[in-house]
Amino acid sequence: MKLSIGIDEELPSFWAVAPVPKLTRSLQDRYLRGERGNRGNRGKRATVPMAIISAPRRNVMESANELVYVVDDDKRVREALSTLLRANGKDVQSFDSGKAFLDTRRRNVVACLILDMSMPGINGLEVQKLVGVDARLPIIFITGRGDVPSTVLAMKGGAVDFLTKPVDEDGLMRAVDAALARARVLRKEAEDAATLQALYRSLTPREQELLPLLTRGMLNKQIAANLGITEYTVQVHRSHIMRKMQADTFATLVRQAGKLQLDISPSITLNA
After folding, report:
1. What domain range is 211 assigned to?
2. Is 96 within 8 Å of 141 (Cβ atoms)?
3. Sheet holding 161-164: strands in order across?
4. Which residue, 37, 62, 39, is CA-closest to 48?
């Protein structure tokens, strides 16, 4: 099913409603039975977007700490997309311009961005460039007039998908799920990197100096000669490094040094 949100198309009547909150199964059943929660209106059918009733039920727990940003200058599009996303268990925050989105502080959650390509003021590609420093925010572009150059630029900029209006509901939800999955991976990688940096900063200056020498495969006596310390001192530092870096094996320590981008290439000027 397609959302009729093309450039010159009328929005179907069942989308002409304000965004609604997520509905539990019991509430959906009540809507299906026509109950309004008011005695005077009992038996009457409630006005609710059909997408709420027919949309596939997705894992709500998985979406509890996830957010989809929607940026589009067309109010009809924003409301239609927001309603569909909420019906599928997504938390949504919408904006009517790229500037409004950029001026708002983003929440510290797993998130993706649905971004209109053509908007007055700051267009989609410009917004993409400005949020490019935040690689943890995958972008899905939507456009009413797709063209090859813009598509190429968007994909080169890291967009995860590029959809043309009218947007296919299933295609959009697949793109959103893929974008959020990517955001989860990127967030985990960023958290792991931050943890590793914190472990590295816990080392003393001497231990930081010794770490790349160890991971190059230098012998204790070679390290001692290079640093002007005893072999026993090297052994003590090595033990402290392994403990502080939480490395259970030396191979783990080597991988950590690589992720820290320390020079772990074999030394070619080793002192005896």
Report:
1. 202-259
2. no
3. 91-95, 66-71, 110-116, 139-143, 161-164
4. 37
Per-residue confidence (pLDDT) for residue 205, from 0 to 100: 95
Q: Are 34 and 48 in contact (CB under 8 A)?
A: no
**C-alpha angle 110-112-116 in degrees, rounded to nearest 5:** 160
- Angle between the 205-215 and 231-244 helix axes, to the nearest 10 degrees? 90
pLDDT of residue 266: 58
Contacts for 103 with CB less than 8 Å, ≥ 6 apart = none
- Mean residue pLDDT of the chain comes to 78
- Do 212 and 78 fall into the same domain? no
pLDDT single digits (tens) 234-255: 999 999 999 999 999 999 999 9
pLDDT one-digit tens code per residue, 36-46: 344 444 444 33
Cα–Cα distance for residue pair 221/231, rounded to 1 Å: 6
Evaluated on CA atoms 162, 166, 169, 171, the torsion sign reads negative
pLDDT the model gives residue 50: 37
Same domain, 130 and 33: yes
Q: How many residues in total does the chain contain?
A: 272
pLDDT at 10 exceeding the cut of 50:
no
- The one-letter code for the residue type at 204 is T
**Integer Cα distance of 170 and 70 in angstroms:** 17
Residues 36 and 137 in one domain: yes
- Identify whether residues 178 and 219 lie together within a single domain: no
Q: 3-class SS at 47?
A: coil
| Residue 70: strand, helix, or coil | strand
